[in-house]
Amino acid sequence: MGTTLGKNIKTYRKNKGLTQEELADLLNVTPQAVSKWESENGLPDVSMLIPLAQALGVSTDALLGYDSLSEQDELISRVKETVASMKSSGDRRDQKALRVSEYLSTETSLNPGCFELIKDYVQETADLSMYADPMLENCFPDETDRIKKLYQDAIRKGAYLISHCNDRSLIEKTHYAVAWIYIHDKDFDNAREHINVLPSISSNRIKEKLSMELTFFESGFDKMKGDIKENSVILFELVCSMLNTFAENYGWWCEDKDEALEICDWCEGIVKAFAARKDLINMRHYLRARRSIVFFKLVAVKKSGDDKGAEALYGQFVKEISQEDLTDEEKEKIIELLNNDIAHYSKYG
Length: 349
What we know:
The protein is mainly α. The chain folds into 3 domains: 2-64, lambda repressor-like DNA-binding domains (434 Repressor (Amino-terminal Domain), Orthogonal Bundle), CATH 1.10.260; 71-195; 214-348, no CATH class. Helix content is 75%, strand content 0%.
């Protein structure tokens, strides 16, 4: 049963569109526990089977391998594999984004009841909208009707999901993606409507904070430490996302190079400080944040015409990464991602 269960947890989790961290959060366990289950280095407690099946949207029989994957599960798996293959091609990012969106448009029309695919379609079209935005990359100046058709289709299907789906996570992800489509299409009023229904961190009354306190009063500090570790990973992702937005916009749009670098350095310093405890962060998010922030620093320097300064900044970053407590694979990956960004955006000088 162990082998079947581990594989099934991984399959159903991916079909649901959840990361290991997100599944762990739903079950109030550590991401390491989920990783052990999926790698077959451990089994979930029997008491976890029903909550696990509910979180993954399957029956306990299916989870235990007594049922085969449903037809919809097989559909989702097939479509996600096709999308992954499209994204791994060597074509330009904007062309890949367009092909993926059009492929998912067809699949969601053929399978209108599959909310997981609709969510993916709206998210991919939101990514496409960045490339199409005339204010940003303007990659499709002669494809206006083609792009508009995708926007309208994705928004319509997103509205259907929001109205009929019972999965709160899918609804929130769809609201978020639809808002981005409206933003890039310059329909700010409709964008604001979707933004305003999303959860906010401004009240500080979030479930993770109170859940940690509940664990303390119910089970003590030792148990609470596990919650703190899990929530630190979630918090790090949120912090990285916000700081990326700060650095991105200062890098591209601030006319004062020194001011842009000051903000980017501040963002970078926060990421580094947070990552002082590697066990409390998601390494993928760390590498992404480090590479993106330094890229926006390069943008700010290049915009000012300081090519030598940009070269020195790049060399300094490579040296710094080589000295960090990272694996050789992680060091190579972050430099590769940075180089890909530089190559893609070279048309901006």
